[in-house]
């Protein structure tokens, strides 16, 4: 069965510091992979996605993620965090079975300190 | 563009009451989904639909029902509300799968409290 693991429930980073959020997935075929961000009281916004091609993908707001098949990982990175990046981040895998369901990890809440 | 619209945004129900969470999308998407979000649990799929007249259960369907009479609308029905259904509910939609169209688009959510 498909699954997504985000090992860190929450992370605190200083403003201006670099960020890496971890994501591991379990899926038998080539996965569709996504990172979404959710600000408090808001819906989910897509940051970036990967299906094939270059394993380093660029997204909005200065985020990037690298797909590593050998490690079944799709970690999200940002070189310099801004206070406005404080939010909850969800990694997800798209399962190309009936209905193409998107399966989410439990999320990582990012806190940014001044 | 309106995208995916959910109503209401907030609701308090008493145990045993029923209600319908409305979801409509104006992007002509075939696929629609209902998720619930609980703290520390991510989003769990309740029901989904691949087109008008076709629905199927997701991971946590118990206590819920759905219908899909039109492409645009995908209401979620709670028949006998229970405290365990206190959650934030998200509706999502997406177009048929293609290399350029793989992600789902989400509504703003409905925060439901059952007391």
Brief summary:
The complex is a heterodimer of chains A (114) and B (115). By secondary structure, chain A is mainly beta.
Describe, in plain words, how this protein is organized in 3D.
The complex is a heterodimer of chains A (114) and B (115). Chain A is mostly beta strands and 114 residues long. Chain A is built from no helices and twelve strands. Chain A has strands at residues 3-5, 10-14, 19-21, 24-26, 32-38, 44-50, 56-58, 64-68, 73-78, 87-95, 101-104, 108-113. In chain A, strands 2, 5, 6, 10, 11 and 12 form a six-stranded mixed β-sheet that branches. In chain A, strands 3-9-8-7 form a four-stranded antiparallel β-sheet, with no helix packed on it. In chain A, strands 1-4 form a two-stranded antiparallel sheet. In chain A, a hairpin with a 5-residue loop joins strand 5 and strand 6. Chain A is globular. The mean pLDDT of chain A is 92. With 115 residues, chain B is mainly beta. Chain B has strands at 4-7, 10-13, 19-25, 31-38, 42-51, 54-57, 64-66, 76-78, 87-94, 105-106, 110-114. Chain B is globular and about 45 Å long. Chain B is built from no helices and eleven strands. Helices cover 0% and strands 50% of the residues of chain B. The A-B interface holds A 4, 9, 32, 34, 36, 41-46, 49, 51-52, 90, 94, 96, 98-107 and B 4, 31, 33, 35, 40-45, 48-50, 56, 58, 90, 92, 94, 97, 99, 102-104, 106-109.
Question: Any descriptors?
Answer:
heterodimer, A: 114 residues, mainly beta, six-stranded mixed β-sheet, four-stranded antiparallel β-sheet, B: 115 residues, seven-stranded mixed β-sheet, globular
Distance between the termini of chain B: 36 Å
Mean pLDDT of chain B: 93
* Secondary-structure element pattern of chain A, one letter each: EEEEEEEEEEEE
What is the helical fraction of chain A, as a range of percent? under 10%
Could you state the order of secondary-structure elements of chain B as H and E?
Answer: EEEEEEEEEEE
Kindly provide the radius of gyration of chain B, computed on alpha-carbon positions and rounded to a whole number of angstroms: 14 Å
Q: Can you tell me the residue ranges of chain A where pLDDT is under 50 for at least 5 consecutive residues?
A: none
What is the overall number of helices of chain A? Answer: 0
Strand content of chain A: over 45%
Q: Supply the number of helical segments of chain B.
A: 0
Instruction: Give the terminus-to-terminus CA distance of chain A.
Output: 41 Å
Global structural class of chain B: mainly beta
Number of strands of chain A: 12
Biggest sheet record of chain A: 6 strands, mixed
Shape of chain A: globular
């Amino acid at each position: 069965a498909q699954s997504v693991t985000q090992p860190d429930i929450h992370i605190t980073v200083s403003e201006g510091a670099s960020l890496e959020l971890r994501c591991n997935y379990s899926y038998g075929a080539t996965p569709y992979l996504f990172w979404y961000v959710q600000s408090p009281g808001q819906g989910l916004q897509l940051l970036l996605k990967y299906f094939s091609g270059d394993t380093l993908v660029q997204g909005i707001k200065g985020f990037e993620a690298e797909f590593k098949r050998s490690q079944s990982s799709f970690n999200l990175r940002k070189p310099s965090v801004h206070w406005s990046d404080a939010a909850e981040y969800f990694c997800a895998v798209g399962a190309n079975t009936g209905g193409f369901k998107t399966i989410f990890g439990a999320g990582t809440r990012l806190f940014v300190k001044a | 563009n309106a995208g995916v619209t959910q109503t209401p945004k907030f609701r308090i129900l008493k145990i045993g009451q029923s209600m319908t969470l409305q979801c409509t999308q104006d992007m002509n998407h075939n696929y629609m989904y209902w998720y619930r979000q609980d703290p520390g649990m991510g989003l769990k799929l309740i029901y989904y639909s691949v087109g008008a007249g076709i629905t199927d259960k997701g991971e946590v369907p118990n206590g819920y029902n759905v219908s899909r009479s039109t492409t645009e609308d995908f209401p979620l029905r709670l028949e006998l509300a229970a405290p365990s259904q206190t959650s934030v509910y998200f509706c999502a939609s997406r177009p048929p799968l293609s290399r350029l169209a793989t992600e789902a688009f989400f509504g703003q959510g409905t925060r439901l409290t059952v007391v």
